[in-house]
Amino acid sequence: MKKRLLFTMLAVTCFLVSCKTSFPVAQQSGKEDMAYLVFVGPRQTYGNGSKPVQVDVDGKTFDAKVVKPKVANRKGTQYGVATGNRHVTVKFKGETIYSKQLLLSSQETKIINLP
To answer: pTM surpassing 0.85?
Structure first.
């Protein structure tokens, strides 16, 4: 009888200790001073990201994938840039297709629609 009571108390204690792990944990929301760019355009022109565009943000150049508008919010590749006033130029096959001065705030995701 004592063994059964001891086993039951041990099982209840283990159960209560394991429940403690389900308390909420502090959430992290990414880097503080970063804004994000997502490039959206028609699949006929840019493929499924197979034809990258060249992006220039204040003199720093990188290649970016272009996604179709329906999946931009869920599956679009986000590119982190510094916050503040930024001049963004997008080129495709050597031709400038987008050039604009943008004000980017912290944790903002800017969707850039390409022709």
So the answer is: no
